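Q: what does this look like with S-adenosylmethionine bound?
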Amino acid sequence: MSTDAADDYLLRHLEEAGVDLGGTVVVLGDRTGELLAALPMKDGRPVLITDSYLAMEAARARVGDAATLLSTQDEPPARIDVLLIRVPKILALLEDQLHRLAPRLHEGSVVVGTGKATEIHTSTLNLLTQLVGPTRTSLAVRKARLIFTEPDVARIHADSANPWPLTYPLPADRKLGPIAGHEVTNHAGVFCADRLDIGTRFFLQYLPVTHGGDHIVDLGCGNGVVGTAAALANPTAQLTFLDESYQAVASARATYEANIADPGNARFVVGDAMSPVEDASADLVLNNPPFHTHRATTDLVAWRMFTGARRALRPGGQLWVVGNRHLGYHVKLRKIFGNCETVAGSPKFVILRSVR
Ligand code: SAM
């Protein structure tokens, strides 16, 4: 059994209802790997599908090669007998995944969702009803709730097309530099799916022009708008786009390839903070750190990103960070680099630079 109330409730239900776990069981969105590890393992099943590199590694640490670990960008199993959904915080990700997975369900498939009661909204239930079939919820137990959905195969096959990924044009504002008016692509769940973030917009106005052939890293690249803008401003630079989200890295690749005539100068990497980048190999790191998750977790990620950037920069290389003024990133940067300078500021945002 699991220590998490939502996982635990789901596992107890599977046992009490005698759900047959002998076929293809797919687990969507398990953040810790605990739910996956509690299921019977046989012939590479169950199958985990996740958008998060860290969730994938947490699952790998628990189950090794006994289960199949897939990203949200991989091809899902052709036939799904049991679909267990840990309801994600971002509904767009669930919408996209249901569009991909529902056609692989059959009349006899069992679909059960679980989550904290506060994370399950009417919109979650409506989405399941619309894309899979009739949906109801259980009573709350230890502040967790289950969702039961019966696949309505006729409806699934008449379903409308998946709206993801979305593409939108950036404002044609000259202050944004060479990327003004260009298109960006966002897969479901990626930061700022339908418009440019105001912090990113501020960052784009001040991106540096580097020496030819420099290695620039777009750290926490999201849809890749910052790195693509840097590539347009620095046509001979080598770019590395890095993010913890598979959806983000796929978005960055699509944004970059749509906007750069010769897209051979970039690599796209899924990983945690700067860990995939070699020591002393980067000239410039551009970073808009994550800030939407729990504050303590977010601070930790920012710390890992900044210390990783210091390790990966060549002596003289620079880390540029944009952030809300109140987050006080300059304190961390000064501790890590021994220096930090403000490149630009607005009432809400600051752009900070530290030199290795
Ligand atoms: N650079 C994009 C922009 O400015 O629009 C996105 C910035 S968004 C505020 C922060 C990004 O950091 C998200 O895409 C998120 O997935 C990514 N991220 C969060 N934790 C991460 C980690 N541990 N390692 C790498 N990237 C991470």
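DSSP finds eleven helices and 16 strands in the chain. The radius of gyration is 22 Å.
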